[in-house]
Specification:
Blueprint (H helix, E strand, L loop, with lengths): L22 E8 L5 E6 L2 E6 L8 E4 L4 E4 L1 E6 L12 H10 L2 E6 L10 H14 L3 E4 L15 H6 L6 E2 L9 H11 L5 E4 L12 E2 L2 H6 L3 E2 L1 H18 L3 E3 L5 H12 L4 E5 L1 H5 L21 H13 L4 E2 L8 H4 L16 H10 L6 H15 L17 E11 L18 E11 L2 E5 L2 E2 L2
Parallel strand pairs: 1-4, 1-5, 6-7, 7-8, 9-10, 10-13, 11-12, 13-14, 14-15
Antiparallel strand pairs: 1-2, 2-3, 5-16, 16-17, 17-18, 18-19
Helix pairs in contact: 4-6, 6-7, 7-9
The structure holds (4S)-2,6-dioxohexahydropyrimidine-4-carboxylic acid and zinc ion.
């Protein structure tokens, strides 16, 4: 096998077709700072300053809006190929653009599983065709997510999709010897293993967080220790072999402690937290509404507080949505039969504003770091996550920080409806998203 390319995936080069317009975004506040104008030309930020003149450019009056670098989601389920009734690359990336994202990493638990160069290239091409956000496929760690044999990691890394993130998400790579080999293998091309940390023997039949609420309801719970045991094990393995480990959707206070310990020891470990684990708690399960069933489960208020603190102090590197669309028949059923998972792309920024900005835990630069720069760096994704300054790719989200909106599941762009925020009022709203200088969202509406 030939050695895979060095370095991560490259964003497609800026479109230089003659139809590309220049844009002047006037009076916008980068990172919530002083108002300025931004000139977008040929896919990059070509200028910044007061009263920019650019004859022929389209103007967007952005007075009062905050500009952040286009958001990057390390953990999205787009469901294509296989479950196009739940989501497609087109509908999922439209939801992403409306949420302020310019790039998403598409998880591998599709049908067929993204465990070959062929499938990851297919997903990557569908993303390019849709043109709403860059789609960077995640490759499976094991064939068919079965946890028995390593998938063609090198061939996926060497494919047109240039895969750098590998995950069996939805399932844990439970076999420690296989996990060690996967960690060692991806070192050759700067890859990372993203682990869904769940000890399977400790979570057989689990329905929600193991604790007071599960005891009241008489349901089998996911104990926190099932997550923490795998994170501790994998941190030790990653440290031993000198490889990069990423921990998906951290959900317990104990996990934050273990990550803090591992980072202090110099282990190359990064971690993500979902918006829903920053805001929602397990007592929502008492109504048996499967909209609140998710894996890992919603935990306790103490866990939420520890996750917020861990995200604020950098122990948790980034926010990732775990956007998990499910068709009606898989979700609108009794709790035990319902699939776990929640929509996330269109509400993520608003939920982070409520949980982290309005609580004083993060400022706008902190949000940009955790929702754009850090995920782009962890996923080795070039062309995303750069600071807003001349010369940077014109990937931007403009948001109104002073408004609020009520989530109407029927109005979401996702093909599925399983949002846990239905009829809830959330702060801040995405007004526009630019992908390489072209608007994918304007005035809160998708452009494709
Ligand atoms: O709740 C979840 N849903 N957790 C996962 O790990 C997988 C995801 C899905 O694919 O629906
Ligand atoms: Zn997962």
């Amino acid at each position: 096998m030939s050695p895979p390319h060095e370095g991560g995936p490259q964003a497609p080069s800026p479109r230089a077709d003659p139809g590309t317009r220049d844009w002047v975004i006037s009076g916008v506040r980068p990172y919530g700072g002083a108002p300025t104008d931004l000139l977008l030309r040929d896919g990059v930020i070509a200028g910044a300053g007061r009263d920019l003149a650019a004859p022929g450019a389209s103007r967007l009056d952005a007075a009062g809006l905050v500009a952040l670098p286009g958001l990057v989601d390390l953990h999205t389920h787009l469901r294509e190929p296989g479950r196009e009734d739940a989501e497609t690359v087109q509908t999922g990336t439209r939801a992403a653009a409306l949420g302020g994202y310019t790039a998403v990493f598409a998880m591998a638990n599709t049908e067929p599983v993204a465990d070959t160069a062929g499938v990851v290239e297919q997903v990557w091409r569908l993303g390019r065709q849709a043109g709403l956000a860059d789609v960077q496929p995640v490759g499976a760690v094991t064939v068919g997510l079965a946890g028995e044999r390593l998938a063609e990691l090198g061939a996926m890394a060497d494919s047109a999709a240039r895969v750098r993130v590998f995950s069996d998400d939805g399932r844990c790579v439970a076999d420690p010897a296989l996990m060690r080999r996967a960690l060692e293998y991806v070192k050759a091309f700067g890859g990372v293993i993203a682990q869904h940390a769940e000890e399977p023997r400790l979570t057989e039949g689990a329905q929600l967080n193991e604790g007071v609420v599960s005891a009241q309801l008489g349901l089998v719970g996911w104990p926190a220790a099932a997550e923490e045991a795998i994170i501790a094990r994998d941190a030790l393995l990653a440290g031993h072999v000198g490889s990069r480990l990423h921990v998906c959707h951290v959900s317990t206070a104990g996990s934050v402690e273990i990550l803090r310990w591992a980072k202090a020891r110099g282990v190359r470990v990064t971690a993500e937290v979902t918006p829903h684990h920053l805001l929602l708690t397990d007592d929502l399960a008492t109504g048996y509404d499967p909209l609140f069933k998710v894996n890992p489960p919603l935990r306790t208020a103490d866990d939420v507080a520890a996750l917020r603190a861990g995200l604020a102090d950098g122990t948790i590197d980034c926010v990732a949505t775990d956007h998990a669309p499910h068709a009606m028949e898989d979700k609108e059923t009794e709790w035990g039969a319902a699939r776990p998972g929640m929509l996330g792309l269109e509400t993520a920024l608003s939920v982070v504003v409520e949980a982290m900005v309005h609580t004083g835990l993060l400022d706008w630069r902190g949000v940009a770091m955790r929702m754009s720069a850090a995920p782009a760096r962890i996923g080795s994704l070039a062309g995303h996550g750069a600071a807003i300054e001349p010369g940077a790719p014109a990937n931007l989200v403009l948001l109104d920080p002073d408004t609020s909106w009520t989530v109407d599941p029927g109005s979401l762009a996702s093909r599925s409806r399983n949002t846990p925020y239905a009829h809830r009022e959330l702060p801040a709203r995405v007004v526009a998203t630019f992908l390489r200088g072209e608007p994918t969202v304007l005035d809160g509406k998708a452009q494709r």
